[in-house]
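User: We ran a pulldown and think these components assemble together. Before we commit to crystallization trials, I'd like a predicted model of the whole complex to look at. Sequences follow.
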Amino acid sequence: MKRQGISVSDGIAIGEALVITGQEPDIQKDMQGSVQKEVQSFETALENSRKEIQNIRNQSAADIGEEQAKIFDAHLSILEDPEIVDGVKEMIASEEVSAAYALDRKVTELLQLFETIDNEYLKERAQDLKDVGRRVIRHLLGVKDEILTDMKEGTILVAHDLAPSYTAQVDRRKVRGIITATGGRTSHAAIMARALGIPAVVGVKDIIKHIQPGETIGLDGFTGEVFLKLDNDQFQMLREKQQKNQARQDKLKKFIGKKTMTKDGLVRELAANIAAPEEAELALENDAEGIGLFRTEFLYMNRTELPDEEEQFEAYKAVLEKMGDRPVIIRTLDIGGDKNVTYLDFPEELNPFLGFRAIRYCLEHPELFKVQLRALLRASTYGNLKIMYPMVSNLEEVRAANALLEEAKQELSSESISFSSNIESGIMIETPAAAIISDQLAKNVDFFSIGTNDLIQYTMAADRLNEHVAHLYDPFHPGVLRLIKKVIDAAHQEGIWVGMCGELAGEEHLIPLFLGMGLDEFSMNPGNILQSREIISKWSMSEARELVQEVLNLTSSSEVKKRLDFFK
Amino acid sequence: MKNKFMITNESGLHARPASVFVNNVKSYQSDVIIRKNGKEANGKSLMRILTLGISKGDTIEIEVSGPDEKEAMAAIQNLIDSGLEG
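Assistant: Here's a predicted model for the assembly, 654 residues in total across the polymer chains.
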């Protein structure tokens, strides 16, 4: 049986399903011995829980990072909360009930109170409270944690959703794959899986119902397929794909530490796209020469209030420090469109992708934008920072954004806070208007990065999620390719460098073409970097330029695909 | 002793400001009770404070009683005046 989900972390996994049901253990209301004994076992359970959380905290700080470990600091503080500690003890004494019962009721009471308040932050705290409550109750009842104890080598974790406290306990040595019923590319489980390099598929509806605990299952993190009740053919098929992939990965390893260089010695740059600080590690493992796109939306989403300057500063600093001398392009806030943020008042829009988003929103809200710019500037002393504005469609926007950047610099200077003096600032080219006036824009910025996902959708006027017009969302359309060529030429004419951070930058058939057009930097999913380095090593610039000449004279997408060996 | 306070920081008594508050009052022996609209909460319990749903612009009453109530109240005054940052 095969089910389809969303592929969020590459790789193939075959293993034994460990289903995280989140089921609650049975709680007896009556106490076993005296009040005093019950209180004592409550205290012991608190203490054991504290030790356990402390251990997980240290483990996840080492495995994933300090940021992730902070979740457990919140858990530790709940263990000391007088409402819980004293409240439960009082209930045991006054009602003569078991500690587990008293705690369960206390937690339920608080959760009910939380529910009356509509607030994202409280929802997260509610999750923490539930987690901690369950842990202490487990200790009281002597029930073991399903995720910690049942996890053997070769496990595939299956859950409705993986809370941050669970993902932080995932042992990458034991877990081969992760499947969740909910979520998308930017859900917590997805980001963690990518950061840990574990194949994962999310959004597989009703998966838990269809799975037997302990059954052998498979998942394909490239295609998003999940295989239940594995038959022999499927098993063989996955095995083969896995071995092939492994062999290919091993072969590509020889490109680690090598320059990205054409046959005739021209050096290019291969960078990684990341969406959270944790992913910088993966970028380095794949020998990225920089970060070509660090999306900052994660800081703003799934919460109830704006991140302050300090929090942003810490996130940017973490990535800059990790990457050392390698360039890190941080893109300023790109919300709106399909990425909405509940606590900011976005108007309902008929055409969100043609609406109030990205730099358009930021320029209307300079107070919000400047917090980010200040945080970026402050972080700049910790590495090689470049700042990039998204969704630019005219020169005024560039000037206005740079004016605010200048203001932020003035402010910091007057507060005697230091920042680098030579930070490059550039723009994404993702609207056709920006591409067409790229010669003028190039005079006012330090670099371009071509955002192909939006550039294609706006150029073709087609939404790739709309099945009726998805075929028109076509990267091989001569119109798209000519526009990209125009942008690269305009940049070089003005002596600035130009990169690409859309999905096309890692598309194997198009890399030679972009190479021939003169693209300076290719930024992509970390997993595609070594393969792209191999492709570039097989071409000389004269060959690649010839290819460009030929392809740009073709009249249809299918001819282009044929010439680029897409069908082989 | 009792005192009324207006909460002026952006996010009210939630998230970090609430933890800052709890961590500060915990160091005093006195009991701290926060009241809003007839509901009350132990000022040393983050979980309880959160259930009051205190937002920017709300007026709350804080009662402190115990051996170091004066110092505690002064500290709370300072804390709220400085916008509960810490």
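The domain at 256-563 of chain A is CATH 3.20.20.60 (TIM Barrel). That may be worth checking against your pulldown data before setting up trials.

User: Thanks, that helps.
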